[in-house]
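Figure S4 source data
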Amino acid sequence: MKFLLKAVTFYLLTTSIVLANTQFNKVGEARMEYLFWDVYDAVLFTPSGNYSAGTHPVKFKLTYLRDFDAKEIVKATNEQWQHLGKTGLADKYDSKLLSIWPDIKKGDSLTLVTNEQGMSTFYHNDEKMGEIDEPQFSSDFLAIWLDEKTSEPKLRKQLLGN
C-alpha cells in the first residue's frame, strides 16, 4: 500500500512539473462584446500553436473587462451549454464551478489549463483555484467557444487563428 501511495504521489508531482514546464504558444485571441459592452478578452494556447478538438494540453485564458459575480459566470456557462444541446451539465458541474470560481473584478483573469489527459485546472490571476478531474469536462467547457455550433462563430474563428 505504501508503494502505491508513493507511486501516485510521484505521478501527481511529476505531472504538475511537466505541466508547469509546458511551453504554450498562442493559437488565437478575440474580444467578447455584448451589445455595446466589452465583456472579456479570450486567448487560446496549445504547445504547437494549432488547435485540434480533443487534443491536450490546452490553455484558455479569459481576462474580464467588467465585474461579475461567480454565479453570473456559472449561469452564462449553463446558458451556453444549453445552446449547444449539452443538457444536464448544469446539474453535474454547477456546485463544483461555484466552489472554484471567485467573483471577478475588472482586469481579473480566469484560466483553464488541461493536462495531456484532459484534466482541468483553473487559475484566478495565475493562482491555482481548483481542479475538475473528468476529461469530458474540458471538452464540454471549451466547446462553449470552440464548437462549430457556438453562439459566437466570429469569436471562434478568431480564437482558432482564422
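Figure S5 source data
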Amino acid sequence: MNIRLLNSNENYPLELLLLADPSRQLVEEYLKRGQCYVAEIDHQIVGVYVLLPTRPETIEVVNIAVSEVMQGKGIGRQLVTHAIETARIQGYKTLEIGTGNSSIGQLALYQKCGFRIVGVDLEFFVRHNYVEEIYENGIQCRDMIRMSQDL
C-alpha cells in the first residue's frame, strides 16, 4: 500500500470522505484549507485522510476513511500512523482528532495509536444540521469526542 498527498490536479475521493463525514458542505470547506492524503493499492484509492492546521503548532485530522470493502484490514491504523508521522515531520507539536460518541471502533483505534480524550463537544452533530440523524452501533451520534496527542 502507498500513502501519498493527493495531487492538485486530481479529484478528491468524495465518496470516501463522505463515509466519515456525511456533510458535503463541511467536507468541501475543510478540503479548501487542508492537506488530503490517499492510500492506494494497485493504483486504486482505498483510504483517505485530511490534515487541517488549526492553531500555531497544532494540526487536526478532520476526516479519515477506508472503503467499506477494505475495512478491518489495518488500513485505518496505517492512515493514523501516517498522519502522526506527517504532522511530526511538518514540525507540529500537537495532533488532534475527533470522532462521534457512537464511533466505538474509532475511539479504540485512536487510543491505541496514542491519542487521549481531551474533551467533548456536546451536540456537535446536532448543531451542524446534518440532513439525517447519524446512528452507529445502535447509538445516535450526537457528541464529538475530542482527542489529542503530543508529537
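The two ends are 24 Å apart (CA to CA). Strands lie at 2-5, 35-41, 44-55, 58-66, 94-100, 116-121, 135-136, 139-140, 144-150.
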